[in-house]
Amino acid sequence: MEQKGSTKQIVYERIDILLPLAASALKKKDEKHAKRYVFLARKLSTRYNCRLDRTRRAKFCKGCGLPLVPGLNVKIRLRKRTKTAEYLCSCGCAVRFKY
After folding, report:
1. 6: how many CB neighbours lie within 10 A of its CB?
2. How far apart are CA 18 and CA 91, in angstroms?
3. What's the pLDDT score for residue 54?
4. CA 9 to CA 17: how far, in whole Å?
5. Residue ranges of the domains in the chain?
6. Distance between CA atoms of residues 29 and 57, nearest Å
7. Does position 1 have pLDDT exceeding 60, yes or no?
8. Nearest CA among 49, 41, 8, 48 for reference residue 23
9. Tens digits of per-residue pLDDT, 20-74?
10. How far are the Cα atoms of 18, 59, 92 from residue 31, in angstroms, in the given order?
């Protein structure tokens, strides 16, 4: 049982390494590597059944697989009435989070 917990901890550490790498690759205009890093992070989470929390899910687009970098490929809009933050990706996909 102890081994499973340590495996999940290692997976979360690797995901936390891959997502910033993806964002830095996108800032260097390297979309291919950025998509690959996000793909690897998502694959790790599904293979080892590690659920991504809200902060990690907000770092990439489910539609195109690119990391969300404000000002570069995503617009953030705050909706007062519904109290949600809306992340609009350049591919047209929108992600909403309560605030």
Report:
1. 9
2. 22
3. 87
4. 13
5. 2-98
6. 22
7. no
8. 41
9. 999 999 999 999 999 999 999 999 999 999 999 988 988 999 999 999 999 999 9
10. 14, 15, 17
Residues 28 and 62: their CA atoms lie apart, in Å, by 21
The Cα 10–Cα 64 span in angstroms is: 26
Spatial separation of the C-alpha atoms in residues 99 and 80, rounded to whole Å: 10
**pTM score of the predicted model:** 0.86
Amino acid identity, position 92: G
Residue 22 contacts residue 67 (beta carbons within 8 Å): yes
Residue type at 58 in one-letter notation:
A
How is residue 70 written in tokens?
Answer: 């404000």
Q: Which residue has the tokens 């690797």?
A: 14
pLDDT of 2 above 60: no
Nearest-Å Rg of the Cα atoms of the chain is: 15
Tokens 């809306």, residue located: 86
At a CB cut-off of 8 Å and minimum separation 6, what does 15 contact?
41, 44, 45, 50, 52, 56
